[in-house]
């Protein structure tokens, strides 16, 4: 078969049409062998490089950057591709620029030591020495935080150290690693609100601040309004590494004193005096105490020694009581019964009358003739009657269950005006009885039967 030559090329020298083709091929080969490439990482274009060796140099830059922190060479994981340079205006990268772009697009790892607790990698240290030192520091933390002579320290956890290549951000510094093993990572437990619960009470009971509790429960509509059945989330911190410390402890403990009461018939029953002051004793105990993560969980007393015996407190208390009875004198006893609280100073208060104990509903009589000037409810007095006897003298009758007179009514001495009760500020049925002269309280005892 014969090749047909284009009509325009007839009579031409063959070199005429071969030369352009050769020039094109030479240019193409030159461009392919020039050493210029586009480098990509995981499909992402990083920029232009003049030779493939720049990739290793950039990796070496990253190793130099992080060797001081992590103590080993950096492992750069990524799929790198070199593409022939086929376009103009490409940004050529130097070693520092290429290293920076690789750091952003590749995965950087370093050889580290995994701290494996109970089958789970919980943290990573930069090397074996650092990992072992951290474990010792955590153990020392728990030993030092409780007093006494060390007997034993051990961890119930299964601990293993394993070398692994891990991402740089997972490798922690010594201080951060120690705090992680001691404090753990926050966990949340659910608490169901019961009747009467308050946020403040829940926080106090679970040992967290109110601010932390509110922060952990943004779903609550109001910090002041809880309903039974509401769900509250409580943050808990559980150590990743546990230690049990056993120590021998010697300490002193107070011995409480006893109190005995002696009766004295010559003293009123509302009077008492201290005959002998009590004093606590003191003893020294030797114990073996078990702590878990710094919290005392058990104690065994090995022995004790009395340093000082306690002194018993002796109190003399009166037995003499004054019985209220109806007489024929100027003022009558309003009811019959024992005086349960006398007139005068009572603790930090001043009792302005006398209390006479009597069964609920017992009749209360007017101590003398007069006019009722008040009959009704009056705060702490409860149901209350005032009788004016003239001459500036008035008698008060308080805590009544029933009022049987009205204001302005004249009553005779001994007439029933009400019934014993426990209204107002009262802890049981009794009559509170007062005598006042020109508004000033007087001891009713000095007026009765006289």
Automatic annotation (TrEMBL):
Top-rank taxon, per record: Bacteria
Gene3D superfamilies tied to this protein: Glucose Permease (Domain IIA), LysM domain, Resuscitation-promoting factor rpfb
Enzyme Commission number(s): 3.4.24.-
EC class of the enzyme, as a word: hydrolase
CDD domains assigned to the protein according to its UniProt record, in alphabetical order: LysM (cd00118), M23_peptidase (cd12797)
SUPFAM superfamilies according to UniProt: Duplicated hybrid motif, LysM domain
Keywords: Hydrolase, Signal
Signal peptide: none
GO molecular function, one term: metalloendopeptidase activity
Span of domain G5: 241-321
Keyword presence, Coiled coil: no
Ranges where the LysM domain occurs: 189-234
InterPro entries named among the record's database cross-references: Cell_wall_metabolism_enzyme (IPR050570), Dup_hybrid_motif (IPR011055), G5_dom (IPR011098), LysM (IPR018392), LysM_dom_sf (IPR036779), M23ase_b-sheet_dom (IPR016047)
Stored PANTHER family: MUREIN HYDROLASE ACTIVATOR ENVC, PEPTIDASE-RELATED
Protein name: Murein DD-endopeptidase MepM
Gene from which this protein is expressed: mepM_2
